[in-house]
Amino acid sequence: MFSKIEVNGDGTCELYRLLRSAQPSDAEKSDVTWNFEKFVVDRAGNVVHRFSPMTKPEELESVVSGLLEEQPGA
Predict the structure, then answer these.
(1) What is the 3-state secondary structure (H, E, C) of the chain?
(2) Strand-pair partners of 41
(3) How many CA atoms lie within 13 A of 51 on its CB side?
(4) d(CA 51, CA 15)
């Protein structure tokens, strides 16, 4: 379990600062809008996609599958 962290505002933890800056949302507003916002990070640590909280997990399948097919050792 993790302790509560800040994902927006002045006290944003470094992980979310990186995720938000690498993949701003569609509205170009980088704040995380809700708990279930999703970020996809490749094996090299690059943030490659950001999904809205309303995106269903099965909608991520093509992005994740594509990354697995591209990268050696998958």
Answers:
(1) CCCCCECCCCCECHHHHHHHHHCCCCCCCCCCCCCCCEEEECCCCCEEEEECCCCCHHHHHHHHHHHHHHCCCC
(2) 47
(3) 17
(4) 16
The pLDDT profile of the chain, 74 residues, written as one tens digit per residue, is 578 889 898 999 998 988 988 876 655 568 888 888 899 999 899 999 999 889 998 999 999 999 988 756 54
The amino acid occupying position 48 is V
pLDDT given for residue 31 in this prediction: 86
Span between the terminal Cα atoms of the chain, in Å: 28
**Contact (CB, 8 A) for 60 and 51:** yes
